[in-house]
Amino acid sequence: MRVKLCALLAIAMTLGMATPSATAQGPVILKVAIVQQIDSMNPFLAVFQSSTEINRLMYDYLTAYAADDQRVTEGLANRWEPSPDKLTWTFTVPEGKKWSDGQLVTAHDVAFTYNLMLNDEVARTANGSFVTNFASVAAPDDRTVVIRTKAPQVTMLALDIPIVPRHVWEKVPSIKDYANDRMPVVGSGPFVLTDHVAGQFIKLKANKNYWRGPAKYDELHFVYFQNSDAAVQALTKGEIDLVNRMAPAQFDSLGDKPGVTRNKAQGRRFVELLINPGAQTRTGEPIGDGHAALKDVRVRRALAQAIDLDALVQRVSLGYAEKGAGLVPPVFGKWHWQPGEQELRKFDPAAANAALDAAGHPRKADGTRFGLRLVGRAGRAYDEQASEYLKRQLGDIGIPLDVRLVSDNQLNEATTVATYDLAFSGWATNVDPDFVLGLHTCAQRPGADGKGGTSDAYFCDATYDQLYARQLSEFDEGKRVEIVKQMQARFYDQVPAVVLAYENALEAYRSDRFARFTTQPAQGGVIMAQNGMWGYYGAEPAGRAAPPSSRGPALAIGGLVLLALVVVGVVVARRRKATAGERE
Amino acid sequence: MRLGVRLWGRLGGAALSLVMVAVLGFFLFRVVPGDPVVSMTRGRPTTAAMQAELRTQFGLDRPLHEQFWNYLTSLLRGDLGTSFTFRRPVSEVILERLGPTLLLVGTSTVIAVGLGLWLGVRAAWRRDSAFDRAATGVSLTLWAVPTFWLGMLLMMATGDLFPSRGMRDTDTAPDFVSQALDVGHHLVLPSLTLVAVVCAEYMLVMRSSLLEEMHAPYLTTARAKGLRDDLVRRRHAVPNAVLPAITLVFLRFGLVVAGAITTETVFSWPGLGLLFYDALTGPDYFLLQGLLVVTAGAVVVMNLLAELLYGVLDPRVKVV
């Protein structure tokens, strides 16, 4: 009797499992893999890249970057005008834009958001740098926002601050303790947050009130993966529809997979080799233990000349990168700088050898000049492989490398307190180059207590700083572009770091479920990690006929496994009885 | 009276261990390299003032002895602090992950213990048989295989049959049966990986301790009494041989709470092991401290239980 019951239960479970949980008539869902945790859904506190990407979907900013060419375009405001003295900016919030709960978006929402940040230190946690120069913000009527700045600021159209609804947030007693998880979360972006289970998934629904029109599918789910190999596997199995941050080998492995389309995009990231130029704090005190020889720019230039950047691109990045030069990657076309024939440092070990001799570092009897430490991150394929090439190439000019591949935290610590000679680093850049340029100014070095710095290159150069200040107040874009290029040329010439490569962003999606995605920029752009929400918003389903990954057969097999286990158990039990009987 | 003293002695020992764990937890993770504020804000436009504000929010701007005192007093109140990474109370974050971990590691441990002990008993009873050689060989091979590699291999080998990640799909129907079946479906690969890797431990311990009993005179007596071979094994040999395995089982149950970092990482299973991994990348001091206190506390409590249970399982322990 018990056996029969077990068998019946197993069959019932099998049948239950065989029923697909999501039917073909269900909502069209785009499932995206994310590999980074979400720190907070509160846009004033969220600092992780993954969190800010979700915030971009939930909230509009004052202005946006167009999908096709990344020019500044309409966000919540559709017009803006600086005063003649460039100290007052007037933005117009047009009529007709609504929050996801149906209430109208007004200039008061914008003023409320910025004033909250000006008045509450906690609200400045994530995006405080954008309002540092603000003197006041006011909304004289429903349509007009007036921002007064302390000094002219050219980046006023690059304020990456999510605008929150005043009617919701004015009731929040403490920003610090507010998780912003009252679902559905009221926002103005193309999607509305409806569910978030930490470490598992985030669910958003298309915002039917979105002023550009609702997305062409129903729901957007982000599912959390701790490891990118599993994410790639999940894509090939059809469990997810979109994945990014792939390694070159993973990207290549998807080349012949049916139903999968790859997107090799120009990335926003560059990788660099830091050369400790004699690190100092903001107050001029030496910090760290960089090799003294590296203070000499001639030595730094010689090192840079001995590195074969083409070989690194071809052999380490497997061709999925472009050769490095200036601080702004080529994806941001007008700001990108390439050295002219006069400035270009060609790979030339003989010239590097001669330069080191001239700089007073002749080879010793054993053929070496001086040794250097190279710090990189263990487990990051680029660091592991590139360090081998650098070891050989710098060894050829008499500089043996002591390579130390360490944990992410150890690497961060070494660069934060300048206990390195050479180190791998890299940054993601924005449409406006101010952030990456500002990182390398004297002010970004740490304070006397060794804290508060954001630079890891410890570059401090008066010429560069003067150019930085000039570009920040240059409102003629053509002139500003010129200054930005001069800054990159100066950085290249002084070599506090060698920009090794601009990495491609390697992405792939299920083209049998989603026919196309909007990339930014239109040519060679990315789908995920954009300066905007176009990639997700512009996704077009391949057709409703394609069911959302039916798991029926798989579940049935799961049930069958269970059934098999029960049957084996029953057989063993019966056999055991028989054996006992026979032996008796 | 003597029993009472011994019991209090053991309880006192366990309490002392917990206090030491709490103290160690604070200083151990302060030695982990890296500045949590720098890690959090890297790659964002950040000013020195913003970094200072974050330090103030997390209490990292205070002297170490003050941080330690705050930590101890909060701990006594049951407050484990606020996680930097998740910006929520540590106890809340840990509690949320406890269920998935207990489900995965608990299920796997129960299966591995049952299967391992059964295989161990069978293998020892039929020493040098084909079954013994096959069971020992396969178990040892799986024991030697890296968990990460085995997990990835299973994921690839099973194709579409089982999901690659997590505990449930995002589009499963919300009713209980669908959710339960979905969780069961997701549980298969990670628990199979865990069982395959740790099963050999129990099997080998059980096998070797039973082999030691195989030629004991009391078994001959039992057989002489006319008992079936099956009963001789079950009622006489196994109870005497099972003590070392019980020690191991209790130790393992204590570690259930610690999760299985590698398996949880491979399958993105949202348990405490994965949480530990995420906390270390910060480093998220409060979360790490909380996790250490909870996991080490579980081991201490299970050890205490094991010690108390020995007396029940084997009267000889009481005499000693």
UniProtKB/TrEMBL annotation, chain A:
<feature type="signal peptide">
    <location>
        <begin position="1"/>
        <end position="24"/>
    </location>
</feature>
<protein>
    <submittedName>
        <fullName>Peptide/nickel transport system substrate-binding protein</fullName>
    </submittedName>
</protein>
<feature type="transmembrane region" description="Helical">
    <location>
        <begin position="554"/>
        <end position="573"/>
    </location>
</feature>
<keyword id="KW-1133">Transmembrane helix</keyword>
<dbReference type="InterPro" id="IPR039424">
    <property type="entry name" value="SBP_5"/>
</dbReference>
<keyword id="KW-0732">Signal</keyword>
<dbReference type="InterPro" id="IPR030678">
    <property type="entry name" value="Peptide/Ni-bd"/>
</dbReference>
<keyword id="KW-0812">Transmembrane</keyword>
<feature type="domain" description="Solute-binding protein family 5">
    <location>
        <begin position="72"/>
        <end position="435"/>
    </location>
</feature>
<comment type="similarity">
    <text>Belongs to the bacterial solute-binding protein 5 family.</text>
</comment>
<dbReference type="InterPro" id="IPR000914">
    <property type="entry name" value="SBP_5_dom"/>
</dbReference>
<keyword id="KW-0813">Transport</keyword>
<dbReference type="Pfam" id="PF00496">
    <property type="entry name" value="SBP_bac_5"/>
</dbReference>
<keyword id="KW-0472">Membrane</keyword>
TrEMBL record, chain B:
<feature type="transmembrane region" description="Helical">
    <location>
        <begin position="187"/>
        <end position="205"/>
    </location>
</feature>
<keyword id="KW-0472">Membrane</keyword>
<dbReference type="Pfam" id="PF19300">
    <property type="entry name" value="BPD_transp_1_N"/>
</dbReference>
<dbReference type="InterPro" id="IPR035906">
    <property type="entry name" value="MetI-like_sf"/>
</dbReference>
<feature type="transmembrane region" description="Helical">
    <location>
        <begin position="285"/>
        <end position="306"/>
    </location>
</feature>
<keyword id="KW-1003">Cell membrane</keyword>
<feature type="domain" description="ABC transmembrane type-1">
    <location>
        <begin position="98"/>
        <end position="310"/>
    </location>
</feature>
<dbReference type="Pfam" id="PF00528">
    <property type="entry name" value="BPD_transp_1"/>
</dbReference>
<keyword id="KW-1133">Transmembrane helix</keyword>
<keyword id="KW-0812">Transmembrane</keyword>
<feature type="transmembrane region" description="Helical">
    <location>
        <begin position="102"/>
        <end position="125"/>
    </location>
</feature>
<comment type="similarity">
    <text>Belongs to the binding-protein-dependent transport system permease family.</text>
</comment>
<keyword id="KW-0813">Transport</keyword>
<feature type="transmembrane region" description="Helical">
    <location>
        <begin position="7"/>
        <end position="29"/>
    </location>
</feature>
<protein>
    <submittedName>
        <fullName>Peptide/nickel transport system permease protein</fullName>
    </submittedName>
</protein>
<dbReference type="InterPro" id="IPR045621">
    <property type="entry name" value="BPD_transp_1_N"/>
</dbReference>
<feature type="transmembrane region" description="Helical">
    <location>
        <begin position="241"/>
        <end position="261"/>
    </location>
</feature>
<feature type="transmembrane region" description="Helical">
    <location>
        <begin position="137"/>
        <end position="157"/>
    </location>
</feature>
<dbReference type="InterPro" id="IPR000515">
    <property type="entry name" value="MetI-like"/>
</dbReference>
